[in-house]
Each structure stands twice: as structure tokens, then as C-alpha cells.
Write a structure and sequence with these properties.
By secondary structure, the protein is an all-alpha fold. About 85% of the residues lie in helices and about 0% in strands. The protein has one domain. The chain is built from six helices and no strands.
Length: about 160
């Protein structure tokens, strides 16, 4: 992967995610932060896909995106669903789903079943990753409160 390819991926993903958020009627003030978050998650996925695989890259990107979405929702005082939509857009396996349908229609059932399996696994990985991100953030806040109480009791 060279720099030009990376920049093209960044710009294309930013435009695509902002367009997706416009179609979903997201507040105008949240388009840029949501687009940048979605772009960052796409680039993380794109970088991780090479050394790992699609499933692991999707899982890690979903966890990181979920944590950042929660933080941004607090900072911008906006429902977290706005940012979750921004990270969902680049992770949903649209092309693989299309290819699965194409395999079924053309009678290539063996490839279709393989592709369906991957789509289902990716859907599960995305949902588990997004839920895990919320849990990780809650555990972190709980740990911070515990440390604060421990420091208060020590004094």
C-alpha cells in the first residue's frame, strides 16, 4: 500500500460516509465528526486487513469504533447512534452480500453458501465488536472509580 492509495481510500471513505449520514438525515453539525470517525475506522480496517484477515480486522475496527463513538457522543452531547451509524457504514459487508446474491441467482450454490457463511460471521463480528466496545468503556470507567476510591481511602 502506497501513500497515494491510502489518501484515495481516506478521501473516498470520508465522502461516502458523509453521504450515507446525509441520506439518514443526521444533523448537519454531526456530518464532519461522524465522517472523520467513519473514515478513521475504514482506514484502521484497511490497514489491519492485510496482516490479519477480514474477520479480525472487522472485529478490532468495531471495538475501537464503538469506544470512540461513546466518547464522541459525550463530547458532542449527541446520541451515540449517530456515531455508531458512521462506523457501521464502512464495516457492513455490502459487496460480499451482493456477490452472495449473484452466486445464488446464477446457480453457483457452493460459492453462495461459502459467501453466506462469511456474511453471517461478519454481521455477528460487527455486533459483538460494537457491544464489546461499550463493555470495555464501562469497565474502564469502573476501574477509574475504583482507583479513585482506593486513593481516597488511603489518605
Amino acid at each position: 500500500m502506497n501513500l497515494i492509495e491510502f489518501l484515495i481510500q481516506a478521501v473516498a471513505s470520508l465522502i461516502a460516509i458523509i453521504t450515507f449520514l446525509i441520506v439518514l438525515n443526521v444533523q448537519r453539525s454531526m456530518l464532519i465528526p461522524g465522517g472523520i470517525l467513519g473514515m478513521a475506522i475504514w482506514l484502521l480496517y484497511y490497514i489491519l486487513k492485510g496482516p490479519t484477515n477480514v474477520i479480525i480486522a472487522t472485529f478490532i475496527a468495531a471495538i475501537v469504533g464503538s469506544c470512540i463513538s461513546q466518547i464522541l457522543s459525550i463530547i458532542y452531547k449527541t446520541p451515540v447512534v449517530v456515531f455508531m451509524l458512521a462506523i457501521l457504514a464502512p464495516l457492513v459487508p455490502g459487496y460480499i452480500s451482493y456477490r452472495t446474491t449473484s452466486f445464488f441467482v446464477s446457480g453457483q450454490y457452493r460459492q453462495a453458501m461459502t459467501s453466506v457463511t462469511l456474511v453471517v460471521i461478519l454481521a455477528l463480528v460487527i455486533s459483538i465488536g460494537m457491544a464489546s466496545g461499550s463493555v470495555v468503556l464501562k469497565l474502564y470507567h469502573s476501574y477509574q472509580r475504583h482507583q479513585k476510591r482506593k486513593m481516597t481511602n488511603a489518605n
